[in-house]
Amino acid sequence: MIRAPLLALLTALAAAPLSAAAAPPTAAERTMTATVDAEQPRTVALLERLVNQNSGTQNLSGVRATCELIRPEFEALGFKVRWVQQDAVARAGHLVATHAGRKGAKRILLIGHLDTVFEPDSPFQKFERVDETHAKGPGVSDDKGGDVVMIAALRAMQAAGTLKKANIEVILTGDEEEAGLPISASRADLVAAGRRADVALDFEGLAREDGRDMGSVARRSAGNWTLTVTARSGHSSGVFSQFAGDGAIYELARILAAYRQELPQPNLTYNVGLVAGGATAALAPDGAHAEATGKTNIIPAQAIARGDLRALSGTQIAATVARMQAIAATSLNGTKAVFEFEDKYPPMAPTAGNRALLARLNGVNATLGLAAMGELDPLKRGAGDISFVAADVDSLAGLGPVSEGDHTPGETVDIPSIFTQAKRAALLMSRLAAEKP
């Protein structure tokens, strides 16, 4: 447990400007930074190979092929690598790599993913250099760019001799972009790894604000909700009457408007992503398509809306869901609404332990001559796999590269940020690995 005076110091360090008294790099740390620089062409070449192998979440063979491209990198560093098949949740599987170091030292969990949002039918398939400092391609940042940062950092540690004593477990999931269901099955190995670890580092992209690199000590949850309304139907000439009622679409609109007016809270969002209504309305099994029929002179009998809910704590999720259900329950005449919620990604709360990790990273920044990193606003970051372990272990996200256009055909990575992030990660992991839990 971190005591209040120490927490205040660590928080101040996390937000403090670069200190003139920063600890100079050790010989091992100088070797790590030199190794990252010397291996820049190798690192970019690995990124190109990974990006050119399609690994859309639904392309199970492509995700497995990406694993086979990256497996030798870990094996060459002395990791034992295994593949965790995920047939039961209709996903490819996860790469798990373990490195046994000094007994009694901190256990470090590294998290990334193999899959991308770009399936084989996407026109966006290949790695392409934009200029000397940028490249674009599917997953060039999210998260194949993060994976090569991780590997470059581990290679630098090996060159400096700090990897030998490090206790590290790596999990690269094969379905981060669209997790297999049930979540309890598809994330069982990750949750178990989090419970074994003393610290977790996530290699999704680094965020910037006003040109400043920011640390991610919190990520919001991600859950889906469905609102289904049924109503009496009839001739439109009777709409709003006591015997005919208001119809399903007006009731759906009332509920959605009430959500917008009554739910606002800090760090909470509740998007409406799909709406359908009419004489008939049906949601497709994939939850992403709907079909409706109707005429202007028929009071609609059915309406459906789907959306997501993102919050920063379990308490906030529970209170918001309860309020959404209560609003839906006060139905207009002749209508009935049913609200359902599916909790998927849990929140990563901004704990004292997470802030202490950011303070440690800022110590690395000082050694490297880099500016201190403040805390990123959690509204500016989506949900991620690290949230499944954050309740059990101190966690820090955003150790991957800087990018823009993620999840779009313009996804572009800032290449120099790959090397900066690899240096940060190598020094941070080496310092953590030398500590006791």
UniProtKB/TrEMBL annotation:
It comes from the Bacteria. InterPro entries: ArgE/DapE_CS, Bact_exopeptidase_dim_dom, Peptidase_M20, Peptidase_M20_dimer, Peptidase_M20A. This is M20/M25/M40 family metallo-hydrolase. Residues 1-22 form the signal peptide. It comes from Novosphingobium tardum. PROSITE patterns: ARGE_DAPE_CPG2_1. SUPFAM superfamilies: Bacterial exopeptidase dimerisation domain, Zn-dependent exopeptidases. Keywords: Hydrolase, Metal-binding, Signal, Zinc. Residues 217-331 form the Peptidase M20 dimerisation domain. Its cofactor is Zn(2+).
